[in-house]
Design brief:
single chain, alpha/beta, Thiol Ester Dehydrase, Chain A, 3 domains, eleven-stranded mixed β-sheet, five-stranded antiparallel β-sheet
């Protein structure tokens, strides 16, 4: 079977090349490109990798390694002009302007001189961004091949980047130095929820106050061989009383967060948001998943996928504000917020697109502060710079979102669980909008998710000390 032309690399011999001949490739720069280049080169300069650090520099954002552009020039020389068989002799480069994530680079080499005696070529090398600005220029010297070569392109292994050290490790590293947070664990009367409280304590994250019927707690602990000595226990008759007592403790300032145990979410939230608990703020409460998936270069928030079933525009404004607060608590100074819909254009027949446009205008007028908002954006446009560019979307958010705001609970819940079960995502979950964080995890969540949620609560509670909810 003949290989298709897309599978073949063909060179041009020295005799086939004239002064003025050129070849080019295009490449959209992604965060994954820069991370992989850093892994290969060992260049861990935070200017190229850390958005928080880069925001404080003269470039006001992440820029590509200079030699990343040099590597693209090498790719043109080795695969297109002259192509396979080329011997690279030398390269000079000048870096004229920063290359940023999302830039579309046109990398072109043009033959400027030929040396017949030694089969040497001199080539002018240039990288231009999507605005036609020259960002890199230079000159290369190569020995061109004497014989024609046609070769099937090598099949490269698929490379997937995962969070170095794990997202949980980074959360723990950020939260532990802040000291344990006193947390009312509400009705942890099964092995899963009681174990989560004990493991979070052992991780140095929380000082648990177990609010539950003492007899049930002791029975669960005895069945598992766990020792509850030294733990504070608020003895109450049942789960409803546990929720009310835990909320009262938070309202009194005796604990800094609430943690869901083996009771239903509605039962806990009804008590936490009751007027007598004193935990309500002017904002509507909403849930945020903090997720990290191998397919995306940074942690991101999905909201609201657990609390507000069919939020109105007013509700969504508070959902966005809460998510911005959480992003800032984990160190994203000015998060990029994508308002999701099925399409990226406003359609009067699709209310989610109208809400998205209104939320963006509210941000323009200062009604929502502290973030860059854009929407409506389809999911692909929110997380893929390439997809956004194909659709002609010019946006500071598209392809780089820190927060994904879903139209309703059903779509958000399905998205989060698809990412977790099919996309290998790790997750943590919190409710915001009350005076204290509420750690809200699913019965199906593993130990890492529960511990990560506790770490997230520690960071948010610390953030509240300087910026009260």
């Amino acid at each position: 079977m003949n290989a298709s032309t897309l599978d073949l690399l063909r060179n041009r011999t020295f005799d086939e090349i004239a002064v003025g001949d050129s070849a080019a490739l295009e490449r959209t720069v992604t965060a994954e490109d820069l991370q992989l280049f850093a892994v290969i080169s060992g260049d861990l300069n935070p200017q190229h990798l850390d958005a928080t650090f880069a925001a404080s520099t003269r470039f006001h954002g992440v820029i590509a390694h200079g030699m990343f552009g040099g590597a693209l020039i090498s790719a043109v020389l080795g695969t297109r002009l002259p192509g396979p068989g080329t011997i690279y002799l030398g390269q000079s480069l000048k870096f004229l302007a920063p290359v940023r994530i999302g830039d579309l680079l046109l990398v072109r080499v043009t033959v400027s001189a030929r040396d017949e005696a030694h089969r040497r070529l001199t080539l002018d090398c240039r990288c231009l961004n999507q605005e036609g600005q020259t960002v890199i220029e230079g000159e290369a010297q190569v020995i061109a091949p004497a014989e024609s070569i046609e070769w099937r392109a090598s099949q490269l292994p698929e490379v997937k980047l995962s969070e170095g050290g794990g997202g949980l490790a980074r959360l723990l590293a950020a939260a532990r130095p802040l000291g344990p947070l006193k947390v009312a664990v509400v009705h942890p009367c099964d092995a899963v929820s009681l174990q989560a409280a004990l493991e979070a304590r052992d991780a140095g994250l929380i000082e648990p106050v177990l609010v539950a019927p003492r007899a049930k707690l002791e029975a669960v602990a005895a069945a598992q061989g766990w020792d509850l000595s030294g733990l504070a226990v608020e003895d109450v008759p049942h789960s409803h009383a546990a929720a009310a007592r835990a909320a009262a403790l938070a309202g009194e300032g005796a604990v800094g967060a609430l943690m869901k145990g083996s009771l239903h979410t509605d039962e806990l939230m009804s008590a936490a948001l009751a007027s007598e608990a004193g935990l309500r703020t002017k904002r509507r409460a909403s849930h945020c998943f903090l997720m990290q998936t191998p397919a995306y270069p940074r942690p991101f928030i999905i909201t609201d996928a657990a609390l507000n079933i069919a939020p109105t525009l007013e509700h969504k404004a508070d959902i966005v504000r809460n998510a911005i607060e959480l992003a800032q608590a984990i160190g994203v100074a000015r998060p990029k917020v994508a308002i999701l819909a099925a399409v990226e254009t406003v359609n009067a027949q699709m209310p989610a697109t109208l809400d998205a446009a209104a939320l963006c205008k509210m941000a323009d007028r200062g009604q929502i502060a502290g973030a860059e908002l854009d929407g409506p954006l389809a999911f692909d446009n929110a997380v893929s710079i390439a997809a956004a560019r194909i659709k002609g979307i010019e946006s500071r958010v598209a392809g780089q979102a820190d927060v994904l705001v879903v139209p309703d609970l059903e779509s958000g819940n399905m998205l989060a669980k698809q990412l977790e079960y099919l996309g290998g995502a790790a997750s943590a979950g919190l409710v915001l909008g009350a005076r204290v964080p509420i750690i809200l995890t699913s019965r199906a969540d593993g130990a890492e998710s529960r511990i990560a949620s506790c770490a997230l609560a520690v960071l948010l509670a610390h953030h509240h000390r300087s910026t009260p909810p």
